[in-house]
Each structure stands twice: as structure tokens, then as C-alpha cells.
Backbone:
């Protein structure tokens, strides 16, 4: 049967033999016979990988964190390879590449994610295009299908990797758009409850998946049994959570755009729970964060609880407008969230 994503998220990766438990158990083991779990994985890892791979349409490999997954993707490249990245992108990834460039491991070329012509030109020369869409934290969207087509047409096609953390497999499936590898920080929307660290890659081919698994074995970035189990449990409810936060976020975006203190609002066409909005300056944004009573002023995102952060306050995101705020919409009542937003905006005035 051609089940929907919602149905597959609930059911993929379950055991279905007579007498099997309804849920794949936590398997806390360091070895399986003569093999280390680090090398062969466990039933808990595999169930999570099966479910994510099914939703993304590829071969999934779980890692101890999103950064572990990112590092494994860059490990696919030879020394001296050129990686093109968005200037607006996850700060941890950029920090990793700064070290790789300083040590001579990789060459890094940052481009504005809104400059599609520059990206199309870079696809002919690069060894890897690393895309984020929507970007973190500004929520710019990139034309994934157009860029993968340009990459495929190059004489020596670059690998195309996509950080799909914000969109999730429910917003888009980059492999179906021509990407080679997808990466998620499962810490965020997939886990959905701010209680775990986990990353996952999904490769378009078994060959790439094997290379990523080899990188996991070499680097030791193996997921914990409890974390993999929690991430799988979070994935089961991702469709209903994604629908709920999308509905709430769309409602809040309309209200934010009408508020006189708000300068700009960005919300992805894919939906989801991430909003970027801008106040007049850094002092206004800081006053807003200090005035919140329900929404948490915190750096992470994608949990059941709503969070807001002024990313430009961090040196790694100094390129972001000083009054910009990244708003991760949670599962609270929309009217309660708006009441908190408006009373916090009163502090700005």
C-alpha cells in the first residue's frame, strides 16, 4: 500500500512478529557477540534509521549528534576539496569548516543563499554544495531542484548535501529533488521534546550510506540507546506536531506583520514552526526577550515549548541584523503565545 507520511512515521521500524513488543525496545549493549555495537549498530538504532530513511526516501545512518552527522558528510571529501556553503547557515557547521580550512583539509566558499546565479555558477567548480533551506537563522529558502540540476550537468558533478533540519521530511524530501545526502539534527524537530542529542544522515545510494557508516565507526560518533529510542518515539508524533506548529505559526505570522513594532517577518513557504522577525534594533530585541513570561529565551528549537533567541548576540552570527529574532513555535495555545508576544513588545515601547 502507498501509505501517507503520517502513517509511515507511526509504523515504520516496528517489529511485526508474533509476540513482538509494540515498540522496539531500548538495547543497552556495547557488543553483539563478536562485534562491537559501534560497528554493527543495535535494533534500536536500526528501527530509528528505518523510519527516517523511509520518510526521506533513502538510506539513513544515526549519529551521536547533529554535529557528528555533519562531520561525517564532510568526511566524504578528499583533502583540498572545495565546499560552497550559505553565508546564513548553522554556526556549528561554519565553525567546523573554519577549522578544516585553517588546517588545509578543505577549501570553503561562502555565498549568499539568495544569490541563485552565484550558486549556479559555483555548481560547476565545487566539490560539494552544502545547502540549507530554510537557512538558520534567517529562514531564506534556496531552489534545491534548480541547484541539483546544475550540479548534475557539471562535467565533474559535485556532491549536494542538504541540511533539512528546519523543513523535516514532512516539509520537503531533498533526495527526491536530486540531492545526494540529507542531514538532520534530530535533537530538534524530529526528537521534538528537548530531551536528547542525535543526528542522522540519509543517503541517496547504498554506497554513500556505507561511507557515512564507515565515518561513524572511525569517529565513534555512535548514538546512545536511550537517545535513539527517544528520537524514534518523537518521530512517531512528528506529523501531528508539524501540522500543529505550522497552523500556530501561520496565525502568529499574520499578527506579527500587523504589529507596528515589527519591522520584518519571514516564514517559509514549506510551513513548519520556525519564524524570523525583526525589531528596530538590538536594544529592542533584548527588551523583548527580557519581557517574555511564557516563551523561553533559549538557544535550541523544535521542542514542544516555544523559544526565542536573538542570534546576532552571538559572535558567530554577527551577520544577522541586530534586531532579528528566531522564534521556534511550540505546542502552546496560539492565543496564549500571542498574549506573551504582545506584552513583551510593550517592553520594547
Residues:
Amino acid at each position: 500500500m502507498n501509505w501517507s507520511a503520517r502513517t509511515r512515521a507511526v509504523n515504520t521500524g516496528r517489529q511485526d512478529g508474533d509476540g513482538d513488543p509494540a515498540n522496539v525496545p531500548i538495547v543497552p549493549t556495547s557488543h553483539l557477540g563478536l562485534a562491537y555495537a559501534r560497528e554493527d549498530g543495535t535494533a534500536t538504532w536500526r528501527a530509528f534509521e528505518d523510519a527516517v530513511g523511509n520518510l526521506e526516501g533513502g538510506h539513513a545512518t544515526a549519529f551521536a549528534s547533529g554535529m557528528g552527522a555533519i562531520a561525517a558528510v564532510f568526511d566524504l571529501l578528499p583533502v583540498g576539496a572545495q565546499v560552497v556553503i550559505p553565508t546564513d547557515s548553522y554556526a556549528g557547521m561554519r565553525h567546523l569548516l573554519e577549522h578544516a580550512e585553517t588546517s588545509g583539509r578543505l577549501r570553503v566558499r561562502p555565498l549568499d543563499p539568495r544569490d541563485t546565479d552565484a550558486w549556479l555558477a559555483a555548481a560547476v567548480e565545487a566539490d560539494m554544495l552544502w545547502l540549507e533551506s530554510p537557512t538558520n537563522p534567517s529562514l531564506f529558502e534556496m531552489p534545491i531542484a534548480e541547484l541539483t540540476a546544475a550540479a548534475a550537468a557539471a562535467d565533474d558533478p559535485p556532491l549536494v548535501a542538504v541540511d533539512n533540519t528546519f523543513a523535516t521530511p514532512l516539509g520537503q524530501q531533498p533526495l527526491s529533488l536530486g540531492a545526494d545526502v540529507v542531514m538532520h539534527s534530530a535533537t530538534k524537530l524530529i526528537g521534538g521534546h528537548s530531551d536528547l542529542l542525535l543526528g542522522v544522515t540519509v543517503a541517496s545510494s547504498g554506497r554513500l550510506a556505507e561511507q557515512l557508516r564507515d565515518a561513524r565507526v572511525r569517529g565513534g560518533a555512535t548514538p546512545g540507546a536511550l537517545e535513539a529510542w527517544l528520537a524514534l518515539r518523537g518521530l512517531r508524533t512528528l506529523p501531528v506536531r508539524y501540522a500543529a506548529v505550522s497552523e500556530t505559526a501561520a496565525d502568529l505570522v499574520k499578527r506579527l506583520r500587523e504589529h507596528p513594532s515589527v519591522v520584518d517577518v519571514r516564514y517559509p513557504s514549506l510551513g513548519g514552526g520556525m519564524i524570523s522577525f525583526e525589531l528596530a534594533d538590538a536594544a529592542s530585541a533584548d527588551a523583548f526577550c527580557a519581557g517574555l513570561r511564557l516563551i523561553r529565551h533559549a538557544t535550541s528549537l523544535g521542542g514542544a515549548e516555544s523559544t526565542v533567541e536573538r542570534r546576532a548576540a552571538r559572535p558567530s552570527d554577527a551577520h544577522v541584523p541586530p534586531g532579528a529574532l528566531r522564534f521556534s513555535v511550540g505546542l502552546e495555545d496560539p492565543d496564549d503565545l500571542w498574549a506573551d508576544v504582545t506584552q513583551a513588545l510593550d517592553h520594547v515601547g
Remarks:
- The chain has a mean pLDDT of 96.
- The chain has 13 helices and 14 strands.
